[in-house]
Automatic annotation (TrEMBL):
Entry EC no(s): 3.7.1.3
Pfam families: KYNU_C
Lineage of the organism: Bacteria, Pseudomonadati, Pseudomonadota, Alphaproteobacteria, Sphingomonadales
Gene responsible for this protein: kynU
Keyword line: Hydrolase, Pyridine nucleotide biosynthesis, Pyridoxal phosphate
Protein name, UniProt field: Kynureninase
Length: 397
């Protein structure tokens, strides 16, 4: 059994703050501070350029990738770190499309996070006017998979509602139609049990600043199914993915296996901080994480529905159809969320009307649920969210 009191103690949680926004930015693992100091002062400071070999900087993208692999059901040697998730979406999509040269349709859904759609739009525009991004409602994805589809590009857990796609079933359908399946695990990795191997994903990508707590702008990951390692070309063919970067050849030759999905110089400091953050997952069983996530989310839904008649559930009621976040609708959700944040209950707002709360089992507990319900009920019943300052939109919402 995972000891969640022990994992909670690994995080810096500011006193008095109830943090339910780890689905956007995870809190700071205490170990990150010392690791950041060491990588800056002892490694960069003292080793200087020798750090690439002596401190293992060059190998870090694959080494950290192997730690992520365990959390998403991927074999060792099939995940590598680097760049941002937007870039990894582009890279996976470009690679997958090149593997289906006779097809022109990319299928996604309207619940996808916009950057995934934007990256697809940009890539397809560069490939030619016969390529098409087909966006359907999430519930219509299965029916829209046909033999015109080259690639399905789906985010498993919807960023607003927490609605969770059935990855194995949709992947099987895609394969049956001859398409490849790319899964964005931004809201899944560290939140739900993910198994890219039994789910037979062809590519998977994700960020590490949410449930994996790697810090703002932490490097993204990309998984390529081992059977595609030779066929998948990286599209973004940077020198770090070359078979021999330090041969400085004039022509690109893809590196071995997942290494070819590297692009440029790794973000060594950010990778070191992420590496420290991943220590929190040692000894943690994802089945325990999922059970606790459901218990916390169910208690929150029950509490809010009992005490807050002004909001309606935006998330699926069946916990099996949800990730680890819960959304409630309110016509003035932005102002309500600002009022909550001022009272140190931190969730977030997603346009047009969603109050979003993420439950991260590593550090959230029932006391967080109870406090969030109590403060939300009080803010709504007193109407104290309706102040001019709570309606003024900030740049980052
Ligand atoms: C599903 C999904 N994809 C992509 C992103 C963002 O990608 P990036 O890390 O490049 O900003 C997010 C959140 O920011 C997301 O929720
Ligand atoms: N990546 C973010 C950022 O750089 C700034 C603010 C928010 C984010 C997010 O991660 C948003 C997030 N993907 C979401 O689900 O809304």
């Amino acid at each position: 059994m995972t000891d969640f009191a022990a994992t909670r103690a690994l995080f810096h949680l500011p006193p008095g703050v109830t943090y339910l926004d780890g689905n956007s930015l995870g809190p700071m693992p205490i170990a990150a501070q010392d690791r950041a100091r060491r990588v800056v002062v002892e490694e960069w400071g003292d080793l200087l350029i020798r750090g690439w070999n002596a401190a293992g900087w060059m190998a870090a993208p694959a080494r950290v990738g192997d730690r992520i692999a365990r959390l998403i059901g991927a074999p060792q040697g099939s995940v590598v770190m680097g760049d941002t998730l937007s870039i990894k979406v582009y890279q996976a999509l470009a690679s997958a499309l090149a593997m289906r040269p006779d097809r022109r349709v990319v299928l996604s859904d309207s619940g996808n996070f916009p950057t995934d759609l934007y990256m697809a739009q940009g890539l397809l525009a560069s490939l030619g006017s016969d390529y098409r991004l087909k966006v359907v409602a999430p519930e219509d994805v299965a029916d829209a998979i046909d033999e015109s589809v080259a690639v399905t590009l789906l985010t498993e857990v919807d960023y607003r509602t927490g609605r969770r796609h059935d990855m194995p079933a949709l992947t099987e359908k895609a394969h049956g139609a001859g398409a490849l399946a790319i899964w964005d695990l931004a809201h899944s990795a560290g939140a739900v049990e993910v198994d890219v191997s039994t789910g037979r994903a062809d590519f998977a990508v994700g960020c590490t600043y949410k449930y994996l707590n790697g810090g703002p702008g932490a490097p993204a990951f990309i998984y390529v199914a081992p059977e595609h390692h030779d066929a998948a070309l990286p599209a973004l063919s940077g020198w770090m993915g070359h078979a021999a970067p330090f041969a400085f050849d004039l022509d690109y030759r893809p590196g071995k296996g997942i290494e070819r999905m590297r692009v440029g110089t790794p973000a060594v400091i950010a990778l070191a901080v992420l590496d420290a953050a991943l220590d929190a997952w040692e000894g943690v069983e994802m089945t325990d994480v999922r059970a606790r996530s459901i218990a916390l989310s169910e208690a929150f839904i029950a509490g809010v529905e009992a005490r807050c008649p002004d909001v309606t559930l935006a998330s699926p009621r069946d916990p099996r159809a949800r990730g680890s976040q819960v959304g409630f609708r309110h016509p003035q959700a932005y102002a309500v969320m600002q009022a909550l944040i001022v009272e140190d209950v931190i969730g977030d707002f997603r346009a047009p009307d969603i109050l979003r709360f993420g439950f991260a089992p590593l550090y959230n507990d029932m006391a967080d649920v109870e406090r969030a319900v109590t403060v939300l009920a009080d803010i709504l019943s007193t109407g104290r969210w309706d102040r001019p300052e709570f309606h003024a939109r900030q740049a980052v919402t």
